[in-house]
Design brief:
Distance between the termini: 103 Å
Oligomer: single chain
Number of helices: 3
């Protein structure tokens, strides 16, 4: 009988091999117009044998990935837009120097 350590090590090696294969064969086609459809189909077929709880974990992961991408896009858009200009209200009570003329 195999020990738990050898089973975990074998699983980690299989995951590393799968990640390397994904890097080598799949992500090189990310500029292809059908890449998004392929990833959707791959995800659907890969999650078919999973339980509802396992699918929920994957759903949470994809939600996290999406939130991170939205945050990065907003930061890039803000950096591209530049700093907003502010109105000079002057010093001391927001008079902006408009009280130059003193009435009697």
């Amino acid at each position: 009988m195999r020990s738990t350590y050898t089973i975990i090590a074998a699983a980690a090696a299989a995951c590393a091999a799968a990640a390397a294969a994904q890097n080598r064969f799949i992500t090189q086609h990310r500029d292809n117009k059908n890449y998004k459809a392929f990833v959707k189909a791959l995800l659907k077929q890969s999650t078919d044998p999973l339980t509802a709880d396992d699918a929920k974990e994957i759903e949470n992961l994809t939600g996290t990935i999406r939130a991170d991408k939205v945050k990065a896009e907003k930061a890039a858009a803000a950096a591209k837009k530049g700093a907003k200009k502010s109105i000079n209200v002057g010093k001391g009570g927001a008079t902006a120097g408009l009280d130059d003329y003193i009435y009697d």
